[in-house]
Amino acid sequence: MKMIALIDYGSGNLHSAARALRVASNTAKKTREIRITADPSAIALADRIVLPGVGHFADCAENLRARDGLVEALEEAVLKRGVPFFGICVGQQLLATRGLEDGETPGLNWVPGDIDRIVPGAGFVVPHMGWNALELKQDHPVLSGLGDDPHVYFTHSYAYRNPADTDVAATTEYGETIIAAVARDNIFATQFHPEKSQRVGLKILSNFVLWSPS
Description:
By secondary structure, the chain is of the alpha/beta class. The protein has a single domain, classed as Class I glutamine amidotransferase (GATase) domain (Rossmann fold). It has 6 helices and 14 strands. The strands form 3 sheets. An 8-stranded mixed beta sheet has the order 2-1-3-4-14-13-12-9. Strands 6-5-7-11 form a 4-stranded mixed beta sheet, covered by helices on one side. Strands 8-10 form a two-stranded antiparallel sheet. Helix 1 crosses helix 6 (198-210). The longest helix has 14 residues, at 14-27.
């Protein structure tokens, strides 16, 4: 049986993500073992990789790098072998060049850009928590078939700044334009939580299970 590695580095909402991935795999009629792991040898066997994340950028980056061989295993699988990858919330933010939350912390630099605090203006509360509409910027397979006016669930205070236009897959409006999803080659990642986004989120995860990057 093929396997999706759901990365456990002490900073993710693992069990709800695992449940959603199981439902999405069944919906896609692609049975997958969902393995919660930080073991480089397991990552080497994975058919797909999901990196969740909640909390403070610097803490998440430190936790990721503290797992022996984990970053190297992810880079080998994703950057060198082209294994399809999905990052969720801070798991998306870690792909950036650096995070600017309480100082400057290096990210993985897989999708260059900065992570900085959102500043939506008067009348908008930070953190941004709730449902917002997606505006699709790419005809990307992971975003296909979402229907008219798809809404997804956000909970965050920081977001991507200054990625390349070609890396922006979707945005949303919350007193400013917020980058909701980035995509590059075999990498796809969302600021929102697909595992909390009901029908639309499950469709996105099902699309990911079926996705074969060229």
